[in-house]
Amino acid sequence: MLYTLVMRSYGQFCGLAKALDVVGDRWSLLIVRELLLRDACRYTDLRRGLPGIATNLLADRLRELEQAGIVEREQPTPPVATALFRLTERGRELRAAVEALGRWGSPLLADASDDDEFRSHWLAFPLELHLGDRRPDRPQVTLQLHTGDEPAVVETVDGVVRSRVGTAEHPDAVLAGPPRVVIGAVLGRIDLDEARARGLEYEGDPDALERLLVNDG
């Protein structure tokens, strides 16, 4: 169901302009990113995944996205004490746009500040967008990453690469270090010798990364 909003509008009969009327405000698409990555989220989860947002602005953006039919609020039932936010079917249709913008913006990370915030669950989009499995016929390979705020796992599953926050019981390799270096090594943009010189700690099978097929086409 779509809603009529009282909102700022470009006033243009154009699909892109109408989309930006709804999700073009600052933080709106990053809220969508969080809900795509985490599914149902508490307000505090969203705050944690959106460093720098003011709490009143987050509340305003959530309300606007609810009114637009992009986000829905699930009221708590005992023993749950807080509401959950999730994307509607209409909201989930934004995945392709979010992934395309992420892919387009990837080269800009080369000039990003070392002071930029990073959250481990953000790994899912770049890794799943850019990587595949070179040898899907072989047993899965698992990498444990220690970077950002939480440990994360990268693993091959049925020929594709998946990322999740958490730990692996028996990883094939463990990588630890600054986000820029860890991500660069996993994506094949920095070789292991250079990555180690820039602060990467690597333990385990040195061939584990070779299973990950970089696909930037």
Word description of this protein:
It is a single chain. By secondary structure, this protein is α+β, with helices and mostly antiparallel strands. It folds into 2 domains: 15-106, Arc Repressor Mutant, subunit A, CATH 1.10.10.10; 120-214, SCP2 sterol-binding domain (Nonspecific Lipid-transfer Protein, Chain A). It contains 9 helices and 10 strands. The strands form 3 sheets. The chain has a 5-stranded mixed beta sheet with strand order 7-6-5-8-9. The chain has a 3-stranded antiparallel beta sheet with strand order 1-3-2. Strand 6 (150-157) and strand 7 (160-165) form a beta hairpin. The protein starts with 14 loop residues before the first helix and ends with a strand. Mean pLDDT is 90; it is low at 1-6.
Instruction: Write down how many β-strands occur, each being a DSSP E stretch of 2 or more residues.
Output: 10
Number of helical elements: 9
Q: State mean pLDDT (0 to 100 scale).
A: 90
N-to-C CA distance? 36 Å
